[in-house]
DNA sequence: TCTGGTTTTGCACACGTGTGCATAATATCG
DNA sequence: CGATATTATGCACACGTGTGCAAAACCAGA
């Protein structure tokens, strides 16, 4: 059915190996013969079989990409960056979403191996160590993005979540907040730990303490989890005047949760997100968030992996590489000074 | 590097063809030999090469999936449905996003052909006819979702956008709205045409007319386009009391656009979306929308394609198939009766 | 033990492509 | 024209897997 090299060879009266060489631009084939062959290939709409080529060359020209969830806009933008860089280099993506499910992870690992992708980019901070081990043992070049077990892999991209979280938290402190809560995502692994670390560090640097119940984790990344989390925090005897959310997805749910208990954001309570996904500019009020260079994260990861692939294996020197990309605080309308009632209470407590 | 069938043959002292047969469960190989071979394969972590198998069998066990945009939550959920059904049948997905860009479309077509995917699901209503033709000519079994050129393909899944749009529009009419605008997405092809058709049909059935400027199209699917579109409509001398948006993404931007000119939704103006993506429950106010069975759309498309693949080619009878899935109106808080001022104006106009 | 039937396994080939090495064709020089 | 060097091409093999057909092994009956 599809045109093969043999079909072209028959039409042009040369051997299949000459066709192969001509199409690949081998200088050993004459210009005249090459032209004839290429014209025939063009007329016959020849497209190489990826499988045959892959089998012969031991290269698939495909990069595996593993994300936590395909419907999280954060990952969509990272994938966009990966795709742009990959396409530029003639690679295609084989994408899979792990959904934080070990069974899915195992199927994904198997798929990557069977398809013999040229390398793998893992954009799931909580990808299981066991499956990661399997990929490593198989010999894949691997680049991880914000992976909690990054020390097991030698090529990593990080977004600086500690710094980002510190900036968000400092912003709230500078606004006058003293009761600041953190809402995390327990499925998220390293990412939430970094953001929590930054949160704590900034509060500590400001000489503030955090009540234990001000650090609350939900088990997912959906706005509904954000809403559930806000319910918990807002029910506290002394509720926070600000909530630092693990990310925009949770923050969007927190906004709704505040509305449902009659709290006005930011007049009564400030809410911040993280990531600056598309929707965070369109919430009411628009979210103060930490703007991650999502596409850059993706394209840096892809470039790093492509560099690894371009390196002659014999020349390979063990040289771990770690790239840290920084974002920037984006102040919108979901954060403001705490309500006066909260400040006056604070004063009376001190007397 | 990876274990091959030849490695297992060497260890078990049989030929590679016996290994192949045993692993495939061929009854011609004895139970005893099969067990030995399978144990060795297990111990040696054998995984077949997808390329070799594909080359030999002329089947890749991969379904191509083309979506308009990977960061649109609507498509993410469709893909999720596709993925579930495909995985159940032992298939993997090779996904690509066309971004309404002909150059990308061409690269995608080429990729599908080179990889010899077993079939293709097109979830892009505006996928170019020329590229679609190429896929058809190549002999791919193809299932299209809401494709504007669906008559060129024989296997289609539709979501009933005419009916959905009629329901949304009727809902607004029943609330008392008489000045209803439609905000469309000119890149969207058939989908926006259907939704506009339903909008017009329902207004006509209610004996209402639509000023020309009440039908406005923006050139994209981002909330920013929704905001731009709202700016246009709200500037009209006689602005609408309700806006039917092509989808939730645009509606989210329209909500912000209304806020920016001091309009309260739904007290001053009603806004409806379409699709019921995750975020539409978390907007302020939560969007009235048309809830599409997104995952069902995906899984039906995959099942249809898998059925096509399971059919013996010699038994194939030309039998076009078209599945129409219906959604349901989801009334939330973005729609309400028009403001009294708009109704009183209407009365005086009639006198 | 021999013959025939059944079961099990291996040989040979091939899917489409790439490439080392040998051979054929061409060009140049004496 | 013949010899030598250079250029261009083809042969043969192989990547890993699957399968038709032949051969080998096994079993049962006369």
Structure explained in plain terms:
The structure is a homodimer of 351-residue chains. With 351 residues, the first copy, chain A, is α/β, with parallel strands linked by helices. Chain A has 13 helices and twelve strands. The longest helix of chain A has 17 residues, at 294-310. Chain A is elongated, with a radius of gyration of 26 Å. The N and C termini of chain A lie far apart (87 Å). Residues 345-351 of chain A have low confidence and may be disordered. At the A-B interface, α4, α5, β2, α6 and α11 of A face α4, α5, β2, α6 and α11 of B. The structure holds a DNA duplex (30 and 30 nucleotides).
Tell me the major beta sheet of chain A: 6 strands, parallel
Tell how many strands the DSSP assignment of chain A holds.
Answer: 12
Question: Oligomer, anyone?
Answer: homodimer
Count structural domains of chain A.
Answer: 3
Question: And the CATH topology of the largest domain in chain A?
Answer: Rossmann fold
Structural class of chain A: alpha/beta
CATH superfamily of the largest domain in chain A: Response regulator
Strand order of the largest sheet of chain A: 2-1-3-4-5-11
Rg of chain A over CA atoms, rounded to whole Å, is 26 Å
Binned, the helix content of chain A reads 40-55%
Beta-strand percentage of chain A? 15-25%
At the first level of CATH, the class of the largest domain in chain A is Alpha Beta
Q: Which second-level CATH architecture of the largest domain in chain A applies?
A: 3-Layer(aba) Sandwich
Alpha plus pi helix count of chain A: 13
* Whole-number mean pLDDT of chain A: 91
Q: Span between N and C termini of chain A? A: 87 Å
Name the overall outline of chain A: elongated
Low-confidence region ranges of chain A: 345-351
């Amino acid at each position: 059915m599809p045109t093969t090299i043999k079909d072209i060879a028959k039409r042009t009266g040369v051997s299949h190996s000459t066709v192969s060489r001509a199409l690949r631009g081998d200088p050993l084939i004459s210009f005249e013969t090459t032209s004839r062959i290429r014209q025939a290939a063009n007329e016959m709409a020849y497209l190489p079989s990826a499988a045959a080529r892959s089998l012969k060359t031991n290269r698939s020209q495909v990069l595996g990409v593993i994300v936590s969830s395909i419907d999280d806009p954060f990952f969509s933008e990272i994938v966009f960056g990966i795709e742009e860089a990959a396409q530029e280099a003639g690679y295609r993506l084989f994408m899979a979403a792990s959904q934080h499910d070990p069974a899915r992870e195992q199927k994904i690992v198997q798929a990557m191996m069977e398809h013999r992708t040229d390398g793998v980019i893992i954009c799931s901070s909580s990808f299981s160590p066991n499956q990661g081990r399997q990929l490593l043992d198989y010999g894949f070049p691997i680049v991880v993005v914000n992976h909690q077990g990054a020390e097991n892999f030698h090529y990593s991209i990080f977004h600086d979540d500690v710094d980002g979280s510190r900036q968000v938290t400092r912003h709230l402190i500078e606004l006058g907040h003293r009761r600041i809560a953190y809402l995390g995502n327990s499925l998220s692994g390293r990412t939430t730990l970094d953001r929590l670390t930054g949160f704590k560090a900034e509060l500590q640097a400001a000489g503030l303490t955090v009540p234990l119940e001000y650090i609350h984790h939900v088990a997912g990344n959906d706005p509904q989890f954000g809403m559930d989390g806000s319910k918990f925090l807002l029910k506290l005897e002394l509720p926070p005047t600000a909530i630092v959310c693990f990310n925009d997805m949770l923050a969007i749910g927190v906004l709704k949760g505040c509305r449902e208990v009659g709290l006005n954001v930011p007049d009564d309570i400030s809410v911040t997100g993280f990531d600056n996904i598309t929707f965070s500019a369109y919430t009411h009020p628009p979210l103060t968030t930490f703007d991650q260079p999502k596409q850059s994260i993706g394209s840096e990861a892809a470039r790093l992996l492509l560099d690894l692939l371009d390196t002659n294996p014999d020349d390979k020197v063990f040289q771990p590489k770690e790239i840290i990309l920084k974002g920037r605080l984006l102040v919108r309308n979901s954060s403001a000074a705490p309500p006066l009632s909260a400040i006056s209470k604070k004063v009376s407590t001190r007397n």
